[in-house]
């Protein structure tokens, strides 16, 4: 195998490693493919097979050891976006019908909800703004 054939073979290896990267979405294959491209560069510059293999191994291992933990840390850090009833807790609502310990109605997130006061001794009059502390079934619990 001469120097020209060697760099072509390394590029074939890089492409072959790129296929499982796309199919399985495992970034390690991409890191190995980058190592193969570096080895192809070494072969294109005329270095021997020992240098080519060392370039492949060193670059691939370095990428796996350094980049993989960073990528894993970033992919596991997803923002917590509350949805459903969790998104309603802590929001403000406007009282439409008097709210007390036994019930009432509020406008919450553009919708009309049944509501009751958390403190059963407290009552909220029409037009007052209240805070939603919990959702109990289809009833907003407010303070």
State the order of secondary-structure elements, H for helix, E for strand: HHHHEEEEE
Shape: rod-shaped
Mean pLDDT: 91
Poorly predicted runs of 5 or more residues: none
Number of helices: 4
Rg to the nearest angstrom? 31 Å
Strand order of the largest sheet: 1-2-3-5-4
Terminus-to-terminus distance: 80 Å
In percent terms, what proportion of residues is strand? 15-25%
The counted number of beta strands is: 5
Largest sheet: 5 strands, mixed, barrel
Structural class: alpha+beta
Tell me roughly what share of residues is in helical segments.
Answer: 40-55%
Could you give a short description of this structure?
The chain is 50% helix and 24% strand. It is an alpha+beta fold and 143 residues long. The chain is rod-shaped and about 85 Å long.
Provide key terms for this protein.
143 residues, alpha+beta, 4 helices, 5 strands, 50% helix, 24% strand, rod-shaped
């Amino acid at each position: 195998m001469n120097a020209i054939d060697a760099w072509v073979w390394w590029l074939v290896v890089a492409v072959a490693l790129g296929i499982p990267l796309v199919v399985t979405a495992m970034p390690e294959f991409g890191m190995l493919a980058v190592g193969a491209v570096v080895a192809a560069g070494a072969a294109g510059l005329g270095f021997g097979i020992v240098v080519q293999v060392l370039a492949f191994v060193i670059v691939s291992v370095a990428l796996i050891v350094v980049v993989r933990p960073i990528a894993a840390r970033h992919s596991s850090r997803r923002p917590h976006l509350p949805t459903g009833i969790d998104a309603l807790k802590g929001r403000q609502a406007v009282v439409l019908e008097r709210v007390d310990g036994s019930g009432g109605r509020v406008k919450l997130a553009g919708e009309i909800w049944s509501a009751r006061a958390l403190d059963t001794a407290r009552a909220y009059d029409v037009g007052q703004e209240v805070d939603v502390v919990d959702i109990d079934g289809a009833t907003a619990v407010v303070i």
